[in-house]
């Protein structure tokens, strides 16, 4: 069965609410729910989904590499983020540059969200009005083309940059992405060569400039949960 829509959320009430709203606009097209990563991946493949509404709290899913994994061979599927939290421009910018087709926030009101659903169902992009100007999201940096394309970074390259910029070691990354330690080291060397990066400080500045990580994430990685400066294992090049 083709052309299905999927609503993915860890909260069943949220998912049901979004499904009902979308059903108001398309009664003929099947809408299915997904509750976790594996469930979502399987349903994208089984139902040949064309559009996935992904709750913003699915942070681990909303990354370039993970989106590519979820898509698999179904390159036509599009992802749109929905949230019930207060909209933050940096978050919208992040999702946009991760490849999201839209961002809907229920704090803007139901009518605004329904407007967004209509556009997305028509195959258009949609982002909050305060971040749009004459139909284009030009109030925030757009890294979808430009330098990322020039550097020829793959989805996995960008994923690794995000993880390394958050202070993750090669060993931690190998566990998170199910890759061998040596494979991660090789990918890291390849990224440094592509981007003209010589050390982890350059990598951090590159990630900030390209909008792959926020300053808040860097501070969290550097100081840890307790607010004390982490002096070992964060942004060091001892593993090279």
TrEMBL record:
<dbReference type="InterPro" id="IPR039420">
    <property type="entry name" value="WalR-like"/>
</dbReference>
<keyword id="KW-0804">Transcription</keyword>
<dbReference type="GO" id="GO:0003677">
    <property type="term" value="F:DNA binding"/>
</dbReference>
<dbReference type="InterPro" id="IPR016032">
    <property type="entry name" value="Sig_transdc_resp-reg_C-effctor"/>
</dbReference>
<protein>
    <submittedName>
        <fullName>Transcriptional regulator, LuxR family protein</fullName>
    </submittedName>
</protein>
<feature type="domain" description="HTH luxR-type">
    <location>
        <begin position="146"/>
        <end position="211"/>
    </location>
</feature>
<keyword id="KW-0238">DNA-binding</keyword>
<dbReference type="Pfam" id="PF00196">
    <property type="entry name" value="GerE"/>
</dbReference>
<dbReference type="GO" id="GO:0006355">
    <property type="term" value="P:regulation of DNA-templated transcription"/>
</dbReference>
<keyword id="KW-0805">Transcription regulation</keyword>
<dbReference type="InterPro" id="IPR000792">
    <property type="entry name" value="Tscrpt_reg_LuxR_C"/>
</dbReference>
């Amino acid at each position: 069965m083709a052309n299905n829509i999927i609503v993915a959320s860890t909260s069943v009430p949220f998912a049901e609410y979004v499904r009902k709203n979308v059903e108001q606009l398309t009664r003929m097209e099947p809408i299915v729910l997904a509750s976790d990563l594996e469930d979502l991946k399987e349903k994208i493949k089984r139902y040949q989904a064309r559009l996935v509404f992904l709750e913003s709290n699915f942070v681990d899913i909303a990354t370039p590499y993970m989106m590519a994994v979820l898509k698999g061979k179904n390159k036509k599927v599009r992802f749109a983020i929905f949230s019930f939290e207060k909209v933050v421009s940096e978050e919208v910018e992040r999702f946009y540059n991760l490849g999201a087709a839209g961002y809907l926030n229920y704090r803007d009101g139901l009518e605004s969200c329904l407007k967004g659903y209509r556009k997305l169902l028509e195959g258009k992009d949609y982002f909050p009005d305060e971040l749009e100007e004459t139909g284009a999201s030009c109030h925030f940096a757009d890294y979808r083309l430009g330098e990322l394309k020039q550097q020829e970074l793959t989805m996995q390259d960008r994923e690794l940059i995000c993880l390394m910029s958050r202070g993750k070691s090669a060993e931690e990354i190998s566990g998170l992405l199910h890759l061998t330690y040596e494979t991660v080291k090789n990918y890291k060397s390849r990224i440094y060569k592509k981007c003209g990066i010589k050390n982890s400080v350059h990598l951090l500045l590159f990630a900030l400039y390209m909008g792959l990580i926020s300053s808040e994430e860097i501070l969290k990685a550097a100081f840890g949960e307790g607010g004390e400066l982490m002096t070992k294992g964060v942004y060091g090049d001892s593993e090279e």
